[in-house]
Amino acid sequence: MFAMIMNQIHELAKTLPPPRKQNTACDACRSRKVKCNRLPGEDKCQNYPCTHFVQQATSEKKRSAAARRPRNISTSSRIVDLSVISLSLRNLHRCRRLTCPSFSSSPVSASSSPIAEHNTPPWFKAAFGPWNSGRLQSYGGLNMQSTTPTLLHHLFAPESDSAFMFKSRSPGYATWGDMASKLEDEAFRAEFALDLVEVYFQIVHTRLPLLNPLQFRARLNLQATQQRPVIAKQDEPLHPALIATVLAWGAKFSEHPLLVADRERNGGQSLLAKALINRTRELAESLKVHRIPNTNHVVISLLIEPLQCQDPRLDNGFHGFWLTSGIRNLLGLQINHKSVMADIKDPEARGTMIFAWWMACLSDAFSSFYYRRKPMLDDDDYDIDFYTADQNTQEATDPTAPSPREQLEFLGYYRAAHALARISRTIARQLWRPSTDQDGIPLDSVLSYISDLSKWRDAHLSKVGVPPNLEANWDFVSAVSACASDAQYHVTWVALFFAMDDFGIRDDTFTSSNINQMETAKRRVMEEALQASLRIAALAGVLTSNGYLKLDPAVMHVSCINAGTLLARLGRPEVFQCIKALEQYSYAYEETKEHAREISREYDVALQKGPNNFHQMASVINPSSRAFHAEAMSVEALTNGNGNGKHHGNTYMSI
C-alpha cells in the first residue's frame, strides 16, 4: 500500500509545471509594490524592521488554522498546508537567528529551552519541589489536588462506574470475585489500600528502593478531608499516579482475601490487579508523567515499566515506553550531569535520583540487548560515577541499619552491573544495525565480546553471583538478588548465542585461518551458552523451590525464557526447571505461562527430531544433545556448594 501511494505521488509530480523563478522580495515590499531594498548577503529588508517576519508568521498561523477546519481537501492541498506551516517556522527561526528584539523577549523563546541556563535553571525548583504546581490537567474527576480517598474511589470503582477508559468483559463488582462488593465501603477501601502498600514495601521496594517507606506512609493521608497546607516535605500530598502505581504493584503480589477470591474466580489471575495496572497507566498519561521533567515523574515512569506485561510481542507488553519516558525526564532534569547532581541539597532526593539514574541506565542497556533495540543512552551521555550510597543518609526505621540501596552497594552490585551493562550496550548497538541483519556480526566484534565477558566473569562474578555455599537462612532479598546478578551475566552468553544463530558471523577476508577462527568462536559461545543455561536452570530451581519467583518483580524472567528455550531446542531435560519457574512466575505475570508452553513444545520436537531449530550455529550443534560434555547443575549441587563454575580453557565446567 505504501509503495502504491509513493508511486502515485511520483506520477503526480511528473505532471506538475516546472517551478517558477523564486521571488526574493519580502512580503511587505510585495504587498506595497515597492522595490525590496535588501543588501547582498543579508536576510532583513532595509525598508521595514524585521518584525514583519513575526507579522507574517501570525497571518500564516491564521491561514493554517482556517485550513485545519473540517472540509474535503485533496492530496495536493494537504501538501500546500504543510508548506505554509513550514514557511511560518522557517520565518520565525530566521528572525530568531537575526536576534530580533521582538522575538528574543517573547515568553515563548524564554520557556522553549528551559535547560539553557545551566547555573540556575528555571525548572529546578519545580522539579525538586512539590508536584502540585497546577500545570497538569485533571482526568475523569481526578486532578492533582484530589484527596487519597477520592483517588481510591476511582481506582476501585466497578468497571461500569469507573471514570477510567479501561473496560472489562462484564460490568459491576462481580467480575472481581465474591468479596469485591466490599469496595463500596470507604473504610474497607482504606484498609485494602493499606494492605497493598505494605505488600509493595515488603516485596517490590526491597528490589526497587525508589521510595522512602516512612515518608510515603505519612503522606498517604487516607482521611477524607481537604488537602492540608504544606508545612514540610513529609506533609506534601503524594502524586496521585504514584499512589496508583504502588497500589497496582501491591495487587500483583497481595494475598488479601479479596484478591484470592478474584483469582479463584478468574483462573488464577486477578482481574482487579489487571484493571489497576491499566488505570495506573491511563492516570499517569493523563497527568503528563511522560512529558514533564519532574522527580516524581521519574520514579513513576521507572516503576510502571516493570509493572506491566513483559512480553514485547503483545500489544500491552514491553515496548520500553515508560523506561524511555523515565530516561527523558532524567535527561530533562540533567541528572546525567555530576554538577547538577551535586546541587541537590536534600540527601533523600539526591539518593533517589542517583538510584533512579542507574536503574534506568542499566535497564536501557540490558533490555536493548535482550530485545535487539537501539539503546537510548551511550557511555559518554553521563559523567556521574557509579552509584555510591550517601553515608549521611540513614534508614529512618533503624539508624544503625543500612538502607536497601546501601546493602546492594556493599555487594558491589552497581559497579559490576554497570560494567556488564556497557558490554550489553555495545552488543545491542551492533545487533541493531541494518548491516548486521544483512551481512552478519563482524568476527572482530564477536571475539571482542567473548573477551569482554570472560574478563567480567573473572573480575565480578564471584562478588555478585551466588556464593559457593548457600546459607540455609538466606532471605528473599539476598537469594533473589544474588541469583538475579548471577543469571544476568549468564544470560548474556545465551542471548549472544541466539544473535549469532540469527545473524551469523561476517568476515571479509575469507582466509582459512579466519574461517577456523570463526568456527572456534562459535564453539566457544555454544559451550558458554549451554553451561550458562544449565546454571540459570539450577538457579531458577532454587528460587522456585522456595516460592520466590511468585514474588519477583520481573527480574529473572528473561533469563528463564532464554535458558529454557536453548535447553528445549537441545532436548535437555534440565529445561523443566525453567518451565516450572515460568509457571510460578505466572502468578504475577500471566504471559510467562504461555512462554512455558512454547518451551515445552520446543522440547517435545527436539526429543523427536534431535536438536532442532538452529540456523547459523547449526555447524557446532551435534546431532545428539548427549554429545555435549556439560555437567547438569542441580538444585542440590548449588545448595551443597558445587554450583559455582570456574573457567578452564575453552570449557566452562562445573565443579
Tally the helices: what do you get?
27
In which order are the strands of the major sheet placed? Answer: 1-2
What structural class do you assign from the helix and strand content?
mainly alpha
Beta percentage is under 5%
* Structural domain count: 4
The total beta strand count reads 4
User: What is the mean pLDDT?
Assistant: 76
Shape: globular
Largest sheet: 2 strands, parallel
Uncertain segments of ≥5 residues (pLDDT<50)? 1-22, 48-55, 57-126, 129-136, 165-170, 225-231, 388-397, 641-655
Distance between the termini: 59 Å
Q: Which value, in Å, is the CA radius of gyration? A: 29 Å
As a percent range, the share of helical residues equals 55-70%
Description:
The chain has 27 helices and 4 strands. By secondary structure, the chain is mainly α. The strands form 2 sheets. Strands 1-2 form a two-stranded parallel sheet. α11 packs parallel to α14 (295-307). The longest helix has 34 residues, at 512-545. The protein is globular. It starts with a helix and ends with a strand. Mean pLDDT is 76; it is low at 1-22, 48-55, 57-126, 129-136, 165-170, 225-231, 388-397 and 641-655. This is Unplaced genomic scaffold CY34scaffold_18, whole genome shotgun sequence. One of its GO terms (biological process) is DNA-templated transcription.
